[in-house]
Amino acid sequence: SPERKEGALTLIPNPNPNSNPSPHEGGRSRSRSRERGRREAERDERRRMTPEEKQLAELERDQRTVFVSQLVKKADERKVKSYFENIGKVRNVIMIRDRNTGRHKGFAYVEMDDLEDVPKVLMLHDIAPDFQKFPIIVKASEAEKNFAAKKEAEEAKKNGGVSTAPKERRRLYVGNLHVTVADADLMRLFAPFGEIDSVLVQRNELGVSRGYAFVAFKDEKTAELALGGMNGVEVLGQALKINFMGEGPGSRITSAGKDPNTNETRLEEGGDSGVSLGAGGRAELMAKLGERAGIAPAPAPA
């Protein structure tokens, strides 16, 4: 067709008017380009890393990744990503598919962009997402545990079979907290189990509790007692969800440390257990917490 001249510009009609991408398609194309650019930059950065730096980078990525199962057939990467982005930015979703049919096998790996979002993502465990009627299973990566075991084995090999690597099962994740629960409250709740290194309720930029905390004990035995004694205990009407750091909340919990007759926490005889809170002390603490939260205490039985 003839060319049309308009000023100094030569305009050539498009032979296929439908070939121009829509604004939506253009946005997807730009998003894919940015994703490719990010991955290329990450590959370049990995090439410059030492073997130790590569190992740590891999660990950090795995710590940001959760395993999701019980996904229905109609679920896809887009739906899974959209659902998890209600919590925070998702970097990547990988659905495991059958190599012959291309259909996914009902589970996926979701990589969050921010490590701090992982404890919140774990709270989606056993909840039905908006794209299906059945609850999904969400589990944390065991990368930290595997990495620690590998480092311990390497250290043991260097020292003639004696490991000097530090133990990591001293730290607990405490979830499903009422927003009024503060560091000092948790310190008092967990003090009967033994010496505590630190307690930190996670808060947003406005200082409001995010509903979970981290409690670090002096030793593993104390942490195990605290986990067994406090997991599932109701605080202001919300059952605590507790587990070791790096594991999903509430998984593989035992009832160690509880008296089956009274359901009160008992500490091992002769242990370095600190001050016992007891039923009365716990009731007093719960009453104070309830007063702060504006929740009336339950009436005493007649």
Automatic annotation (TrEMBL):
CDD domains documented for this protein: RRM_SF (cd00590)
Disordered, as annotated region: 1-55, 249-278
Any single Pfam family the record assigns to this protein: RRM_1
Gene Ontology cellular component terms for the protein in this record: nucleus
Keywords (A to Z) from UniProt: RNA-binding
Bias kind Basic and acidic residues: ranges: 25-55
GO BP: any one term: mRNA processing
A GO term, aspect molecular function: RNA binding
Domain RRM: 64-143, 170-247
Protein name: RRM domain-containing protein
Species name: Phaeomonas parva
